[in-house]
Amino acid sequence: MAAIWKIGSNEADHYPTLTHHIDADVAIIGAGITGLTTAERLAETGLSVVVIEALTVGKGGTGGSTGNLYSILASGLAPLRKKWGDDIVRKVVTSRSQAIDYIEEAVERFGIDCQFHRRPLYRIATNEDKKIVNMLDAEHEAMVLAGLNIETIEDSPLPFAMERGLKIEGQAQFNPLNYVHGLAKAISLRGVEIYENSPVRKVDYDQGIIETDSAHVTVKHIVHATHTPKGISLLHTMLLPSREYGVSAKINSDVYPNGIFFVHDSFHSIRSYQHENEQYVMVIGEQHKTGEGDLNNTCFDNLRDYMGNHFEMTEFCHQWSNQQYSPADSLPYIGKIHGQDHAYLATGFSGDGLVWGTLAGQIISDLILGEENPWHASFDARRFTPAKSAMKWAEENASVSKSLFKDYLGTKKLKEIEEIGRGQGKVVSAGGEKLAIYRDETGKLSALSAICPHMMCLVHWNGVEASWDCPCHGSRFDLEGEVSEGPSLHPLAKRDPPS
């Protein structure tokens, strides 16, 4: 599966695998928008900076995003206001607005061809559901409080009916993959060393050492720009990992919806994209907790049905998914790691990561340089907010306990292997061990340990993406067992298939 950005992405530069020892001032783990923004801010300060990426530049959360840039939150400002109050709502909107400005300036400064455009954002109700109407009213009030210029609209900009809507000007869209490719090229020309296909296996904060499979880096500052921190962290108990799906299609219609659209039905995010005179529309939705549910193509089928009911299309072209980590108290965690004065993280971006990631790059680089940042205190990763976090903390950790109990007691026995179809996987008990068994399209079986190396939960088969997903803290593994997402530093252990 590949996101739509592949069709419009410029030829990316390729960066080597890390195979030798390096001494540096700053090592950044992750080459998405957070890591590259941090590196860009440090590139001309005289510090030596290394970026280490497990995959390739932008292939993680950034490359699977919508490319939408907005100063509000997809989940709404009204819930945030209720939990945190008026001052935090203003700070969120102001900080995110300047982060969008920062992206626009970077596009101009480095000449990045990423189709950056200022676009309006719409929140749309498709029916007069009282709950949705009240939500829009509360959202309108919170937006005005935050200083946004809001317009109430009655005519739908989309090719389907709406009952009520809000419009905010001055938001933006771009091709996120092209942006980070351009940013990587710019910083590499300014002395930043970038290494791809170099998964980190160990982080020693006391010694300041990061180890990969074939090399290590000795540094003064370590930055986790990996969507969620690698290894064991207390913050993992404060994050809810989930997956969301996207489909795109070429459209054949006079109604071409330029803008960001949050549609309050079951909630869908819609946007358009243009490449070589072809017009596309994408729909995002079907969110669920990572590693849970009987995953099949239903998520994509539902989105295609939704799109077919609302747009005049010529053909579907892409489908993909992406991971989110939602914070327990509704604000991202950005700053120094607990107990470490020279290690930093950025996580808890929910579905708003492109702007939060840019802001995180600004905050973390200022912390490394010893400079004041006006936003750090509001999003400090070391904050302690038990009253605001209690409900989400209880929900997430009850889910983790349930997964552990159910999986270890309820795993299928060895005889169930015969039921595994081609292109399918299943976790079974065999020889006193939990195994993740996969049967390829030729009928050949392969086996991995089903125990996630992160915190010993059992992985679940994801039939949509042919991966093994951990329901506890969001680690995901490919068919070879290698880490593709999440906090785990190590792959699933290989095992011999049972005979």
Rg computed from alpha carbons, rounded to a whole number of angstroms: 22 Å
- The rough form would be described as globular
Residue fraction in strands: 25-35%
The number of strands is 26
Largest sheet properties: 9 strands, mixed
Q: What quaternary form is this?
A: single chain
**Mean pLDDT across residues:** 91
The percent range for helix content is 25-40%
Q: What are the segments in which pLDDT stays under 50 over at least 5 consecutive residues?
A: none
Structural class: alpha+beta
- CATH topology of the domain at 406-495, by name, is Rieske Iron-sulfur Protein
How far apart the termini lie comes to 32 Å
CATH class bucket of the domain at 406-495:
Mainly Beta
Instruction: Label the CATH architecture of the domain at 406-495.
Output: 3-layer Sandwich
User: CATH superfamily membership of the domain at 406-495, which one?
Assistant: Rieske [2Fe-2S] iron-sulphur domain
Count of DSSP-assigned helices: 10
Can you describe this structure?
With 499 residues, this protein is an alpha+beta fold. It has a domain at 406-495: Rieske [2Fe-2S] iron-sulphur domain (Rieske Iron-sulfur Protein, 3-layer Sandwich), CATH 2.102.10. Helices cover 27% and strands 31% of the residues. The chain has 10 helices and 26 strands. It has helices at residues 5-8, 33-42, 77-84, 86-110, 130-145, 176-188, 298-310, 353-369, 376-379, 386-410, and strands spanning 22-29, 49-52, 68-69, 117-125, 150-153, 164-173, 193-195, 200-204, 209-212, 216-224, 239-251, 260-264, 268-275, 278-289, 313-327, 333-336, 343-347, 412-413, 424-430, 433-439, 445-449, 460-462, 467-469, 476-477, 483-485, 494-495. Strands 3, 4, 5, 6, 11, 12, 13, 14 and 15 form a 9-stranded mixed sheet that branches. A hairpin with a 5-residue loop joins strand 24 and strand 25 (483-485). Helix 3 crosses helix 4. The longest helix is centred in the first third of the chain and has 25 residues, at 86-110.
